[in-house]
Amino acid sequence: MTAGTMPLAHIGIVGGGQLGRMLVQAAARLGCPCTILDPDPDCPAGQLAAEQLVGSCHDADQLRQLAAACDVITYEREDIDSTALSELAAQGHAIYPEPRVLAIIQDKLTQKQYLQQRAIPTAPFVALDQPTRQACDEFGYPLVQKARCGGYDGRGVQVMRSAADFVHHLPMPSLLERHVPIQHELAVMVARGQDGRSVAYPPVEMHFHPEYNILDLLLAPANISTDQAAAAQALAVRVVDTLQGIGIFGIELFLDAQDQLLVNEIAPRTHNSGHHTLDAHVTDQFEQQLRAILGLPLGSTAALSPAAMINLLGAADYRGTPVIHGLDDILAQPGVCYHWYGKYETQPQRKMGHVTVLNPDLNHARTMTIRIRSQLQIRGTTHG
To answer: Phi-psi region for residue 244, left (φ > 0), alpha (ψ -120 to 50) or beta?
Structure first.
């Protein structure tokens, strides 16, 4: 890039959901126009981007058109055509994180095998091409079945605590993973630049909805020791440096009952566990992703305040145009940061936005977010 030339780059984003929307907002601050590829003409990111290509993220022709129109391509989801992206990268198009990295991560089996082959600690697992009761019985309970591809927001994951739970198995190629007794579920966001330098955000603590397996509450910083936090950051950086990827990565971790850190999953993109950085850190995860893929210096990951975050989910039994109840009440509270994703239709448990509460006392922030969850409801125009 030539110093002083604006815009810095025209950015292509594969996928137009809320992560893409927040990436477009960060790009606007840096003076970078964005083009979105997404099949939904009303997608959240497309509402704000300079241009949108309406088409499938698996359409090689659409991906070629996106590459031709943009200086650099990134993505906000894993369920895209990594083979087509690899062909474009071989032709000289800048795509970050690199398609070879995406290909490793988007299949949860190859991801786990990659970790295992490099002696990166992770829960024991076996491949499961055809789910059978015998295979699960032989592996032993409790276990976690994970779909190899396509799972997100609790989809594609099934916990089986005993043989009786096999009736709920996922009928698809997957893997079986040992169900690990844990103290904390953690996440560390790591950015790695084109110069090979990596920076890590402080670990956060994640609590998941017991039924839907969606992130229910995030606490930043995590309630772990200073040594454990440093070890979690070091392990997350090791994972990203091993991949030699460029961009931002969400590294989900377990701290097990024996105080051992295990890598659960890797996301080659911004992540729900990093949304609090929009309000609570010097450089948020979306700007950090842009800095990394554009070859700019990575920003400070320092925290400005402790924070608690909840997702705003569509209420049960409601669909249709969103109707928000209780917004005035929560916006009147100090330290509340409200983010709406621009989705025109709600449905049960759909992510519609998030709220981050900033407070010097993390316990107070946690109490406030729990109260906000009961105060604010996102219903639809159709009930039942």
So the answer is: left
If asked whether residues 24 and 154 sit together in one domain, one would say no
Copy the structure tokens of residue 328.
């005035």
Task: Report the predicted TM-score, pTM, of the whole model to 2 decimal places.
Answer: 0.95
Identify whether residues 192 and 245 lie together within a single domain.
Answer: yes
Same domain as 193, residue 63: no
51-54 and 34-38 strand pairing: parallel
Same-domain status, 197 and 339: yes
Residue 126, both tokens? 């076996």
CATH number (domain holding residue 269)? 3.30.470.20
For residue 313, CA distances in Å to 276, 295, 317, 373 come to 17, 36, 12, 9
The one-digit pLDDT tens for each residue of the chain (384 residues) are 445 577 889 999 999 999 999 999 999 999 999 999 999 999 999 999 999 999 999 999 999 999 999 999 999 999 999 999 999 999 999 999 999 999 999 999 999 999 999 999 999 999 999 889 999 999 999 999 999 987 766 678 999 999 999 999 999 999 999 999 999 999 999 999 999 999 999 999 999 987 777 899 999 999 999 999 999 999 999 999 999 999 999 999 999 999 999 999 999 999 999 999 999 999 999 999 999 999 999 999 999 999 999 999 999 999 999 999 999 999 999 999 999 999 999 999 999 999 999 999 999 999 999 999 999 999 999 997
Query: 178, 196, 220 — which closes off a domain?
Result: 178
Same domain flag for 91 and 141: no
Q: Domain of 75?
A: 11-95
Tokens of 188: 């560390």
Domain count, the chain: 3
Are residue 141 and residue 274 in the same domain, yes or no? no
- What residues contact residue 155 under an 8 Å CB cut-off, 6+ apart? 147
Q: Would you say 56 and 63 are in contact if contact means Cβ atoms under 8 Å apart?
A: no
Q: Do residues 272 and 323 share a domain?
A: yes
Distance CA 315, CA 307 (A): 24
Q: Are residues 83 and 136 in the same domain?
A: no
